[in-house]
Amino acid sequence: MKLYIKYMVSLRCKMFVREELQKLGVNYVSVDLGIVEVQDDITDEQIEVFSKNLKRGGLELLDDKKNILVEKIKNVIVEMIHFSDELPKVNDSNYISDKLDYDYTYLSNTFSEVRGITIQQYVIMHKIERVKELLLYDELTLTEIAWKLNYSSVAHLSNQFKKVTGLTPTYFKELKNKRERNLENL
Question: Containing H/E element for 176?
Fold first, then answer.
Protein backbone atom coordinates (compact mmCIF):
# COMPACT_ATOMS: atom_id res chain seq x y z
CA MET A 1 0.00 0.00 0.00
CA LYS A 2 1.28 3.47 -0.87
CA LEU A 3 0.62 6.67 1.04
CA TYR A 4 1.27 10.08 -0.47
CA ILE A 5 2.44 12.97 1.68
CA LYS A 6 2.37 16.67 0.86
CA TYR A 7 5.25 19.04 1.74
CA MET A 8 7.71 16.18 2.21
CA VAL A 9 10.78 17.68 0.58
CA SER A 10 13.78 16.98 2.79
CA LEU A 11 15.71 14.26 4.53
CA ARG A 12 14.44 15.58 7.85
CA CYS A 13 10.86 15.04 6.64
CA LYS A 14 11.73 11.46 5.75
CA MET A 15 13.13 10.89 9.26
CA PHE A 16 10.02 12.41 10.84
CA VAL A 17 7.72 10.16 8.78
CA ARG A 18 9.76 7.05 9.67
CA GLU A 19 9.51 7.92 13.37
CA GLU A 20 5.74 8.42 13.16
CA LEU A 21 5.29 5.08 11.37
CA GLN A 22 7.41 3.34 14.02
CA LYS A 23 5.34 4.90 16.83
CA LEU A 24 2.22 3.41 15.23
CA GLY A 25 3.88 0.03 14.73
CA VAL A 26 3.46 0.26 10.96
CA ASN A 27 6.04 -1.70 8.97
CA TYR A 28 7.19 0.15 5.88
CA VAL A 29 9.07 -0.95 2.80
CA SER A 30 10.34 2.50 1.84
CA VAL A 31 10.03 6.17 2.73
CA ASP A 32 10.88 8.51 -0.14
CA LEU A 33 10.11 12.15 -0.82
CA GLY A 34 6.33 12.38 -0.91
CA ILE A 35 5.62 8.67 -0.86
CA VAL A 36 5.60 5.88 1.71
CA GLU A 37 5.18 2.24 0.86
CA VAL A 38 3.86 0.26 3.81
CA GLN A 39 4.36 -3.48 4.07
CA ASP A 40 0.91 -4.47 5.34
CA ASP A 41 -2.51 -2.85 5.18
CA ILE A 42 -2.95 0.03 7.58
CA THR A 43 -6.16 0.46 9.56
CA ASP A 44 -8.42 3.51 9.28
CA GLU A 45 -7.58 4.36 12.89
CA GLN A 46 -3.83 4.22 12.16
CA ILE A 47 -4.32 6.42 9.08
CA GLU A 48 -6.27 8.95 11.14
CA VAL A 49 -3.59 9.10 13.86
CA PHE A 50 -0.80 9.18 11.24
CA SER A 51 -2.52 12.04 9.40
CA LYS A 52 -2.97 14.03 12.62
CA ASN A 53 0.68 13.50 13.60
CA LEU A 54 1.87 14.52 10.13
CA LYS A 55 -0.09 17.77 10.37
CA ARG A 56 1.66 18.62 13.65
CA GLY A 57 4.93 18.21 11.75
CA GLY A 58 3.80 20.44 8.86
CA LEU A 59 3.03 17.56 6.49
CA GLU A 60 -0.24 16.39 5.03
CA LEU A 61 -1.54 12.99 3.97
CA LEU A 62 -3.04 13.16 0.48
CA ASP A 63 -5.98 11.25 -0.91
CA ASP A 64 -7.02 13.28 -3.97
CA LYS A 65 -5.57 11.93 -7.25
CA LYS A 66 -4.70 15.34 -8.71
CA ASN A 67 -2.93 16.46 -5.53
CA ILE A 68 -1.05 13.17 -5.41
CA LEU A 69 0.13 13.65 -9.00
CA VAL A 70 1.20 17.25 -8.27
CA GLU A 71 3.21 16.05 -5.26
CA LYS A 72 4.88 13.45 -7.47
CA ILE A 73 5.79 16.17 -9.97
CA LYS A 74 7.16 18.40 -7.20
CA ASN A 75 9.20 15.54 -5.75
CA VAL A 76 10.74 14.70 -9.13
CA ILE A 77 11.73 18.35 -9.54
CA VAL A 78 13.16 18.64 -6.02
CA GLU A 79 15.16 15.42 -6.45
CA MET A 80 16.36 16.51 -9.88
CA ILE A 81 17.56 19.94 -8.75
CA HIS A 82 18.57 19.53 -5.11
CA PHE A 83 19.62 15.90 -4.73
CA SER A 84 21.47 15.06 -7.92
CA ASP A 85 25.07 15.96 -8.64
CA GLU A 86 24.23 17.05 -12.14
CA LEU A 87 20.94 17.79 -13.88
CA PRO A 88 19.90 15.46 -16.70
CA LYS A 89 20.98 16.59 -20.15
CA VAL A 90 17.42 16.32 -21.49
CA ASN A 91 14.63 18.88 -21.35
CA ASP A 92 12.97 19.17 -17.95
CA SER A 93 9.65 18.32 -19.57
CA ASN A 94 10.99 15.09 -21.08
CA TYR A 95 12.68 14.12 -17.83
CA ILE A 96 9.56 14.69 -15.71
CA SER A 97 7.31 12.97 -18.25
CA ASP A 98 9.60 9.93 -18.50
CA LYS A 99 10.06 9.69 -14.74
CA LEU A 100 6.30 9.73 -14.05
CA ASP A 101 5.23 7.92 -17.22
CA TYR A 102 2.59 10.51 -18.14
CA ASP A 103 2.14 12.82 -21.11
CA TYR A 104 3.77 16.16 -20.27
CA THR A 105 0.75 18.18 -21.42
CA TYR A 106 -1.43 16.32 -18.95
CA LEU A 107 1.13 16.81 -16.17
CA SER A 108 1.49 20.50 -17.01
CA ASN A 109 -2.26 21.16 -17.10
CA THR A 110 -2.86 19.30 -13.83
CA PHE A 111 0.03 21.08 -12.10
CA SER A 112 -1.13 24.52 -13.26
CA GLU A 113 -4.70 23.80 -12.23
CA VAL A 114 -3.74 22.71 -8.71
CA ARG A 115 -0.76 25.02 -7.98
CA GLY A 116 -1.64 28.12 -10.02
CA ILE A 117 1.81 28.26 -11.64
CA THR A 118 3.43 26.31 -14.45
CA ILE A 119 5.83 23.44 -13.96
CA GLN A 120 8.52 25.55 -15.62
CA GLN A 121 8.00 28.39 -13.14
CA TYR A 122 8.31 25.87 -10.31
CA VAL A 123 11.53 24.47 -11.84
CA ILE A 124 12.97 27.99 -12.17
CA MET A 125 12.14 28.81 -8.53
CA HIS A 126 13.97 25.70 -7.37
CA LYS A 127 16.93 26.27 -9.68
CA ILE A 128 17.34 29.78 -8.29
CA GLU A 129 17.18 28.43 -4.72
CA ARG A 130 19.87 25.91 -5.68
CA VAL A 131 21.99 28.70 -7.21
CA LYS A 132 21.69 30.66 -3.94
CA GLU A 133 22.75 27.59 -1.98
CA LEU A 134 25.76 26.98 -4.23
CA LEU A 135 26.76 30.65 -4.08
CA LEU A 136 26.65 30.57 -0.29
CA TYR A 137 28.82 27.44 -0.16
CA ASP A 138 31.37 29.39 -2.21
CA GLU A 139 32.88 26.22 -3.70
CA LEU A 140 31.91 26.76 -7.36
CA THR A 141 32.29 29.69 -9.72
CA LEU A 142 29.21 31.15 -11.39
CA THR A 143 30.32 29.49 -14.64
CA GLU A 144 30.48 26.10 -12.92
CA ILE A 145 27.08 26.65 -11.33
CA ALA A 146 25.57 27.58 -14.70
CA TRP A 147 27.01 24.43 -16.26
CA LYS A 148 25.91 22.24 -13.32
CA LEU A 149 22.32 23.48 -13.55
CA ASN A 150 22.12 23.28 -17.37
CA TYR A 151 21.95 26.98 -18.09
CA SER A 152 22.92 27.88 -21.64
CA SER A 153 25.24 30.61 -20.34
CA VAL A 154 26.22 32.59 -17.26
CA ALA A 155 24.27 35.51 -18.71
CA HIS A 156 21.10 33.37 -18.87
CA LEU A 157 21.56 32.28 -15.25
CA SER A 158 22.26 35.87 -14.14
CA ASN A 159 19.21 37.25 -15.95
CA GLN A 160 16.93 34.59 -14.48
CA PHE A 161 18.45 35.08 -11.00
CA LYS A 162 17.86 38.85 -11.16
CA LYS A 163 14.33 38.39 -12.49
CA VAL A 164 13.42 36.12 -9.53
CA THR A 165 15.39 37.72 -6.67
CA GLY A 166 15.86 41.31 -7.82
CA LEU A 167 19.62 40.90 -7.25
CA THR A 168 22.51 39.85 -9.43
CA PRO A 169 24.31 36.66 -8.34
CA THR A 170 27.45 38.69 -7.68
CA TYR A 171 25.61 41.16 -5.45
CA PHE A 172 23.88 38.28 -3.63
CA LYS A 173 27.30 36.79 -2.89
CA GLU A 174 28.66 40.19 -1.77
CA LEU A 175 25.78 40.52 0.73
CA LYS A 176 26.81 37.19 2.27
CA ASN A 177 30.42 38.39 2.55
CA LYS A 178 29.34 41.71 4.12
CA ARG A 179 27.24 39.86 6.71
CA GLU A 180 30.20 37.64 7.59
CA ARG A 181 32.49 40.65 7.98
CA ASN A 182 29.95 42.42 10.18
CA LEU A 183 29.66 39.37 12.40
CA GLU A 184 33.43 39.16 12.72
CA ASN A 185 33.56 42.80 13.86
CA LEU A 186 31.15 42.28 16.75
Answer: helix 169-184
